[in-house]
Design a protein that fits this description.
- The protein has 316 residues and is mostly helical.
- 76% of the residues lie in helices and 2% in strands.
- The protein has helices spanning 6-9, 26-53, 60-89, 96-129, 134-137, 140-158, 160-166, 183-187, 195-228, 233-241, 244-266, 272-297, 299-315; strands spanning 13-15, 93-95.
- It is globular, with a radius of gyration of 22 Å.
Length: 316
């Protein structure tokens, strides 16, 4: 039968999914979910505020950290409306074009985060392997340029995603696997040929996440080689200690991202609960833990925060 109804090609609404089998307690699950959003937004905004108001933190390392915090805020705000709507109100419907818009911002901010993690790895590489030229290499204009490249690259790579999806007919249902719109999840509902979408999605991953992760690994191999050449054991520990927070952030960003991608690619018979778990880890892990890790591990931020709070209290 010929497809003549336009709504058949583009469903007016899609249905988001909370936690399969636990719909009756989702309103209670919304409490820890809301708390995690609060921690992510408050923590990252605090990092931004501390770096902005503390002159000694106006260095490349902390400027890149502020970019990471801003990206995490953007990622959290991109998903907050639908996630809380599903868990708190059990309202699963999302308009098709709103879904595509959310999908664009989620993938854009994720790509930006990957690029900024690469920039932070480069910062550590220069600081440890060529410390005498650190301030010469990472000048303010170059740092701004790196940030702009991260933004423009992410936007340009992600713009085709919703455009390529809009051209497809959708006839395989309207139920998504997550409480937010994720490109492979939306694409699986299409009944037309998705070869172009798959090829572009693979090219996108290779041009952003794959290249970024490879260069991050290469940076740390060179850093490790330099550190092992340091005679003093204390010097080695001190140099590596400056990288611990970044290594942890790279790990918690890429591992859920890779697992979630593999589940969508090969996990046809995996449990829906595994889909939801990995999707939520990808969503919450980095924005929630980043400000906690950097606040605890970075002495300059840890010491600056009480001073700022004290000065604000005296001012009031």
């Amino acid at each position: 039968m010929e497809l003549t109804n336009k709504s058949w090609f583009q469903p007016p609404t899609l249905l988001l999914t909370g936690i399969p089998g636990l719909e009756f307690v989702q309103i209670w699950i919304s409490i820890p979910v809301g708390f995690m959003y609060l921690v992510a937004l408050l923590g990252n905004c605090t990092i931004l505020f501390v770096i902005k108001t503390t002159s000694i933190l106006h260095e490349p390392q902390y400027i890149f950290l502020s970019m990471l915090a801003a990206t995490d805020v953007g990622l959290s705000l991109s998903t907050l409306p639908t996630v809380l709507k599903v868990f708190l109100l059990n309202h699963r419907e999302i308009e098709f074009h709103s879904c595509l818009t959310q999908m664009f911002f989620i993938h854009t901010f994720s790509s930006m985060e990957s690029a900024i993690l690469l920039a932070m790895a480069f910062d550590r590489f220069v600081a440890i392997c060529d410390p005498l030229h650190y301030t010469v290499v990472l000048t303010p204009p170059r740092i701004i340029g790196i940030g702009l490249i991260a933004v423009f690259r992410s936007v340009l790579l992600m713009v085709p995603l919703p455009i390529l999806l809009k051209r497809l007919p959708f006839c395989k249902g309207v139920i998504l696997s997550h409480c937010y719109c994720y490109h492979p999840d939306v694409m699986k509902l299409a009944c037309g040929s998705v070869r172009v979408n798959i090829v572009y999605g693979l090219s996108l991953v290779l041009c952003s996440f794959a290249i970024d992760s490879i260069f991050i690994v290469v940076s740390y191999i060179l850093i490790l080689k330099t550190v092992l050449g340091v005679a003093s054991g204390d010097g080695q520990l001190k140099a590596l200690n400056t990288c611990v927070s970044h290594i942890f952030t790279v790990f918690i960003f890429y591992v859920p991202l890779i697992v979630l991608a593999l589940i969508h690619r090969f996990g046809t018979f995996t449990s829906p609960l595994l889909h939801v778990t990995m999707a939520n880890l990808f969503l919450f892990l980095t924005p929630v833990l980043n400000p906690l890790v950097y606040s605890l591990k970075t002495k300059q931020i840890r010491s600056a925060l009480p001073k700022i709070l004290k000065s604000r209290a005296n001012f009031m």
